[in-house]
TrEMBL record:
Lineage summary: Bacteria, Pseudomonadati, Pseudomonadota, Alphaproteobacteria, Rhodospirillales
Domain of life: Bacteria
Listed name of the protein: Uncharacterized protein
Species, as recorded: Nitrospirillum iridis
C-alpha cells in the first residue's frame, strides 16, 4: 500500500484543549481512501462518479471524537487522521473494545457510511438484479471482507488495492432487506422472544412476549431508533414444544436518507477478533505491539461493481413504404447475432427484422464493439437497393428491460434504413 501524503490543517483560531474536531496546525495523513470502481467505466480506468457517500450520524460523532476529517471526492471519499493523535486513537480503540457495542467479542469500533446513487441508470448498468430497489434492499459490505487485488486504481492513486467486498464485485448476495427505525414483525403464536444482534453478534435489543392464548400469529414492533445505522440480525425465538427453543434469524440493513441509499459500508478501524480476515487501517491490537503514526493508515480500498451484460436486440425497419428487406446480416467483432425467421410487427404497424445477440454483451460507457449491417431493400417495383450501416448504435445505459434471468436484461435498438 502506498503511504500517501500529509496535509496541515489551518484553522481560523486555535482549538481549545480537549475539544472535539481537528486542531489548528494538525498534520493529517490518509487513514484510508475508498474509490468507486465500475467496469462500465473501463475507458476511465473504472473510476465511477455515480455514488455519493456521507457519514452516518454515529460516524460523524466518532470522526469528531477522534479528530478525523472526512472528504468526499468525485469518485470516492477519504478519511484523514491527525498523526500527532495516533496514541490517543490506539488507546481509545482499546478502551472501546472493553466498553462499546460488542465489547465481549473484540474491537468492533467502526465508521459507517451511507452511499446514495447520483445516476438514475446505476442499477441498469450494474450486474445486480434489475428489480433492485433501494427502498427495499441495500448492499452491505465491510472491511473484514476486504481482500487484496493484484492491481487497480483508487481515488488516491494507482497501485495495489484491497477490494471492499467478499467476492470480486459487489453482487446480489450482498443485498439485504432494508428496515427503518421502527420494525413491525409478524411472528408465530409460540414466539417467546425477539433478539436484535449487531455485526459483532452482541444482543443490542431484546423483547420478550408472554405466551399467546391464540394460535394466530403475533405482531411485534421493534424500535431501533437508539441504535447506530448498520447491519443487524433479527432472531425470533419460539417455544416449539421441544427440549430446545426454535430460532429463525434474518439479516437486515437499518439505514435512512433522502433519497434512499443503495449501499451501507462499515469500516472497522482495527481487526475485531484474532485471526479475522480483512484489511484494516490500524494494525491489530491483539499482540500489544507498539503502534506509531507510520504504522497507521494509507489504506486504499476500492468498492467494485461489474457492468450488466444484456442481450442486444436490433430491430431493422425500412423507411420506404411497401418495401421489403432481404439478405440482412450483422457482422463485427465481440458478438454474433441470429436473425429471427419471421418479421416482428411493431406497435406502429411497421414490420421489423429482429436480430438478437447469441450471448449477453457487457454494457460500457464507450462500447468497444463495432457492428456493421448489410443487406438489400426491394422496392414495390422490384428494384433492389444496397443497405450498409457501418456502425450500428450500441446499447444505451437505459432502458434495460427484464430478461430471462434477474441478473441479465434486454437492450433494444431500433434502426431505420
Amino acid at each position: 500500500m502506498s503511504r500517501g501524503y500529509t496535509f496541515q490543517y489551518r484553522g481560523s483560531a486555535p482549538v481549545a484543549s480537549g475539544q472535539n474536531g481537528p486542531t489548528a496546525g494538525a498534520r493529517f495523513k490518509p487513514l484510508f481512501r475508498m474509490g468507486y470502481n465500475h467496469t462500465f467505466y473501463d475507458s476511465d480506468h473504472g473510476r465511477c462518479p455515480d455514488l455519493q457517500a456521507s457519514p452516518s450520524p454515529d460516524c460523524q460523532s466518532l470522526l469528531a471524537s477522534f479528530g478525523m476529517v472526512f472528504k468526499a471526492q468525485a469518485t470516492g471519499f477519504s478519511v484523514y487522521f491527525d498523526e500527532d493523535r495516533t496514541a490517543d486513537l490506539v488507546n481509545s480503540l482499546k478502551r472501546r473494545g472493553m466498553t462499546g457495542y460488542g465489547s465481549d467479542a473484540g474491537y468492533w469500533t467502526r465508521l459507517t457510511f451511507v452511499l446514495q446513487v447520483a445516476n438514475a441508470s446505476f442499477v441498469d448498468i450494474t450486474d445486480l438484479p434489475i428489480t433492485t430497489n433501494p427502498n427495499e434492499r441495500n448492499l452491505y459490505a465491510n472491511n473484514s471482507q476486504a481482500h487484496a487485488a493484484v492491481q487497480g486504481r483508487s481515488s488516491g492513486g494507482d497501485g495495489a488495492v484491497a477490494r471492499f467486498c467478499q467476492g470480486r464485485y459487489l453482487a446480489a448476495s450482498d443485498l439485504f432487506p432494508v428496515v427503518g427505525s421502527e420494525v413491525t414483525l409478524t411472528v408465530p403464536a409460540d414466539a417467546i422472544q425477539v433478539d436484535v444482534t449487531d455485526i459483532s453478534g452482541a444482543v443490542v435489543l431484546s423483547q420478550s412476549m408472554p405466551p399467546s392464548p391464540s394460535p394466530a400469529p403475533q405482531v411485534v414492533v421493534l424500535d431501533l431508533g437508539t441504535l447506530p445505522l448498520g447491519r443487524y440480525g433479527i432472531t425470533v425465538v419460539s417455544d416449539g414444544g421441544g427440549s430446545t427453543p426454535d430460532t429463525a434469524t434474518s439479516l437486515v440493513v437499518y439505514t435512512n436518507g433522502t433519497p434512499s441509499p443503495l449501499c451501507l459500508l462499515d469500516v472497522f478501524l482495527t481487526q475485531p477478533q484474532p485471526g479475522m480476515d480483512g484489511v484494516y487501517p490500524v494494525p491489530s491490537l491483539w499482540d500489544n505491539t507498539p503502534i506509531t503514526a507510520d504504522d497507521v493508515g494509507a489504506i486504499d480500498y476500492i468498492l467494485p461493481f461489474d457492468a450488466r451484460a444484456t442481450q442486444w436486440r436490433y430491430y431493422i425497419v425500412s423507411q420506404a413504404r411497401g418495401s421489403h428487406l432481404t439478405d440482412l446480416a450483422i457482422a463485427g467483432h465481440g458478438a454474433t447475432f441470429t436473425r429471427q425467421p419471421a418479421p416482428i410487427l411493431l406497435p406502429s404497424g411497421s414490420p421489423a427484422v429482429l436480430f438478437t445477440s447469441d450471448d449477453p454483451i457487457k454494457l460500457r460507457r464507450i462500447p468497444p464493439q463495432r457492428f456493421r449491417l448489410t443487406g438489400q431493400r426491394q422496392a414495390p417495383n422490384g428494384a433492389d437497393q444496397d443497405i450498409r450501416v457501418d456502425c450500428l448504435p450500441a446499447a444505451p445505459p437505459n432502458p434495460v428491460w427484464p430478461g430471462d434471468t434477474p441478473q441479465g436484461g434486454v437492450s433494444e435498438m431500433y434502426v431505420y434504413v
